[in-house]
Fold this sequence. Notes:
Layout: H1 2-10, H2 16-33, E1 45-52, H3 55-68, E2 72-79, H4 84-90, E3 96-101, H5 102-112, E4 116-121, E5 123-124, E6 128-130, E7 145-149, H6 152-164, E8 169-170, E9 183-185, E10 191-195, H7 197-200, E11 209-212, H8 214-219, E12 227-230, E13 240-245, H9 252-261, H10 264-274, E14 279-280
Parallel strand pairs: 1-2, 1-3, 7-10, 7-11
Antiparallel strand pairs: 3-13, 4-13, 5-14, 6-11, 6-12, 8-9
Amino acid sequence: MSNIITSLFKATTLSRRTALAALLASTFAVTVSSLPDTSFAQEAKSIKVGIISGEDEDVWRVVTAEAAKQNLTIETVVFNDYTQPNEALDRGEIDANAFQHLPYLENQIKTHGYKIVPVGYTGVWPIGLYSKKFTEIAALPEGAVIGVPNDPSNEGRALRVLQNEGLIKLKDGTGILATIADIVENPKKIEIKELDAGVVGRAIEDLDGAVVNTDWALKSGLTPENRIAQEPVNDNPYRNFIAVKEGNEKEAWVKTLVSAYQNETVKAEFDRVYKGTGISAY
């Protein structure tokens, strides 16, 4: 720096103003170059994320490792049913959750007034009709007993699977929250049993068939070989996502959390865990 100053002030062809400008520019350049690059550094942050117990715990161990690389510490809080994660998020006991699709959240908001918003998709698990007694829809007898999930969004979803297969017909204009009260045609006189989403798959031995969410199907020991019908995958409105409280969606840690999930490393673990029954949806 001293050589620069000496040469500047010895120069007779430069005005004092030009010399000073050059000096300031040189000083700024030296100062900036000596500072660490913090343009991509992120403030350390610790958060709690609610998930459902089971296979997703393996996936989130990888997500946690990916987040740690970006200075975000994740503590997963494991729940055993679908009602608790939104309650915990609404109360501020956790910072985010990852377990639900939009029809379910919309019903929860309508019922409980939650201010919760989705911030990034995770996967989709096409719901299917399973049976251990019959290998095709046509083999289902008159009066067959079929179980469906009893929560509003998944019951409507299950009934649409039955409608797609010609087993029932729902009232025209029925939305995604259809119930058995909306059935207007039932040519085989099927008896539909409404059961908890976590129970319906485990009750398969006592049923002729059951419409089961894929994650619960895995937990219940059901396999693709037991599946005799499935909802379409394309344009599926039931993609799961990460959700946070309204007002937090633009926080820097939310962007980091989503990117920690939506990458090839996590996708590889997702595919290993779910064996093709779940599909990455981002």
